[in-house]
TrEMBL record:
A GO molecular-function annotation: acyl-CoA dehydrogenase activity
PANTHER family attached to this UniProt entry: MEDIUM-CHAIN SPECIFIC ACYL-COA DEHYDROGENASE, MITOCHONDRIAL (PTHR48083:SF2), MEDIUM-CHAIN SPECIFIC ACYL-COA DEHYDROGENASE, MITOCHONDRIAL-RELATED (PTHR48083)
Domain Acyl-CoA dehydrogenase/oxidase N-terminal residues, every copy: 9-123
Statement: the UniProt record of this protein carries the keyword Flavoprotein: yes
Any Pfam family: Acyl-CoA_dh_N
Gene Ontology CC: cytoplasm
Stated name of the protein: Acyl-CoA dehydrogenase
Amino acid sequence: MSIDFEIPSEAKAIREKVRKWVQEECIPAEKELDTKPLAEVLGPLRAKARARGLWCPWVPKEYGGMGLGPLANALVQMELGESMLGALSMNTQGPDDASMMTILAHGTEYQKEKFLKPLLNGDKRICFSMTEKAAGADATGMQTTAVKDGNENYVLNGEKWFSSSASVADMALVMAKTDPNAPRHKQYSTFIVELPNPGYKIKRNVANMAIEGPHDDVLHGGHSEIEIRDLKVPADNLLGGEGNGFAMGQHRLAYGRLRHGMHNVAKAQRALDMAVAHVTKRSTFGKLLADRQAVQFMLADCASELYIGRLMLLHIAYKAEKGLDIRQENSIAKIFHAHMVHKVIDTAIQLHGALGFSQYTPLAKWYTQVRSQRLVDGPDEVHKWKIGKNVIKAFREHGTTASAAGGDLL
Ligand SMILES: Cc1cc2nc3c(=O)[nH]c(=O)nc-3n(C[C@H](O)[C@H](O)[C@H](O)COP(=O)(O)OP(=O)(O)OC[C@H]3O[C@@H](n4cnc5c(N)ncnc54)[C@H](O)[C@@H]3O)c2cc1C
């Protein structure tokens, strides 16, 4: 008897199809971005992806997606992350996908028809505005308010900070306090806001440490600071009912964490491949770098980290397929993948020497981008705090911490 690591043939086939798609279409198309406008690259790429049935991987078939379950989706996302055009080509890019997930799960028929449909069709983009200067890791510190104005509208006032892709979005999910007297986690609601809107004013895209690439302004926009002043939102645009904003936000962030992890595995894999391609060609002091044990050790460390990262995702996917609670594993994996990708890219830069530090490979850009992974969707320390509490709880309940340390099924 053994654990069956054989991937079901259907999932394997779709992974092969996506792998081919990324390697043969997306990665070569990246070069075109140097000379062509984004629409001329992404438009035809998306049309081709769709024609091959590669579109919105986890979205149910009745909504036009591929209807993949957690395992097949994880395998697909682990391929897509190798190219900056991968997820975009199949309309499964963050932050849009997590918001699509929220509207799909909690939207009314009207909201699905009016807002979700164009998102799923790839005609529109959406951003998520939760964080404020006053409140990030502890989102319950949000100050933005939503006050009902008769039965027709809510009026929102406040500010938001680091709303990714707001400047390229056609709509935003905005969280605001609807009931200051409710229990802490029931005070907030989420609204679908159509953009542009005079009440939702992008003050600036916040300059940050990530190196910009061609078309980033249109591809991802920036991370915007937003002034919300007398923003009128129709009551029909309240998503999921009053007081449910916080719970819905956590649900979307949970998927975002996993998707980041999957893309991080893919990115780390590409970085390791690049490192090996380099050291198998480059000689110093009369010997190929690949033949140096010190270099082999560096590659071994990266391979080990990638192996752990992959196994974590497969274990989480397995639990998700069975409908089991994945919160503890998701937090552990979120931290691990954020550090893993940083470490592997760092090693790849080191082995490329000055070339790695230059902008002639994507490594430098990735290095500056992935640093944010330790902050977004909850910083390391907040996840560690939760993980640690669960470890103690498990010990108190079972006399061993195993169930909180990946051992619940083992
Ligand atoms: C690239 C990027 C994209 C983002 N995109 C979005 C987006 O689209 N929408 C959105 O709403 N937000 C977004 N954010 C915001 C992100 O969710 C917050 O930055 C994150 O939640 C941390 O909040 P903060 O920055 O206010 O840090 P704070 O809450 O001020 O925390 C600062 C630091 O304090 C430490 N800390 C906090 N709490 C604890 C604790 N309990 N115990 C120990 N240490 C602790 C951590 O080290 C933490 O990094 C984005 C951020 C970045 C960097």
